[in-house]
Amino acid sequence: MTVNFHPSKTKLLDAALQVIRAKGYSATRIEDVCAAAGVTKGSFFHHFKSKEDLALAAADYWSSTTAELFARAPYHDHADPLDRVLAYVEFRKSLLQGTVEEFTCLVGTMVQEAFATDPAIRDACDASISGHAATLEDDIAAAMTLYGVKADWTAKSLALHTQAVLQGAFILAKAKGGPAVAIDSVDHLKRYIKLLFTADSPAEPSR
Asked: Using CA atoms, how far apart are residues 112 and 116, in angstroms rounded to an integer?
């Protein structure tokens, strides 16, 4: 559900998404966010008590805005649940465009820095990443049933694994300075998921 903020607060949240992904949480200053948003520090402190308060709000804002993006995505239109999962992976691949900071994950960036020093930020990032993973569980579980998959892994564990691959792909993209390596990783993820559902499955997909 879309939340309507005061325009200056929305500008600050949008700026936080941009600046933190480009500079990292620790290196981001309140002044950087204000400059990117085109607002004063007075406006910042009208809406947020501190940089941590902004980070927590930005994690929630990231979750809500990305949730809307994925809710409208075309991968939901497939009848076969495995096709939906594979199309989700393809959709993630289609987002790997532009500069690294434009396609990498805000909460993945923040948690790498704050996991040991700021439990509130760590928990907010976990809620965002795990909450998104949970949106895949029903389709994975339905595909396991449809394809007769009996395994020692669960729909939840595979859903989280997709996020582990994606977050790792973002790290590699940062290290290499571009999306090519991340695209390769996502392609490997798609191959892996296909193997899980077809190697020993009595039902053969038509793909």
From this structure: 9
Instruction: Outline where the chain has alpha helix (H).
Output: 7-23, 30-37, 41-47, 51-71, 81-94, 100-103, 106-114, 119-146, 155-176, 180-198
Report the C-alpha gap between 185 and 191 in whole angstroms.
Answer: 10
- Torsion sign over Cα 91, 92, 93, 97: positive
**Angstrom distance (rounded) from CA 104 to CA 167:** 8
Which of 105, 163, 108, 107 is closest to 134 using CA atoms?
Answer: 163
CB 151 within 8 A of CB 144: yes
Tokens of 205: 């997909």
Query: Residue 176 has what pLDDT?
Result: 97
CATH architecture of the domain formed by 52-197: Orthogonal Bundle (1.10)
pTM for the predicted model, two decimal places = 0.91
3-class DSSP assignment, residue 126: helix
Q: What is the pLDDT of residues 68-112, one digit of tens each?
A: 999 999 999 999 999 999 999 999 999 999 999 999 999 999 999
For the segment 107-153, what is each residue's pLDDT rounded down to a tens digit?
A: 999 999 999 999 999 999 999 999 999 999 999 999 999 999 999 99
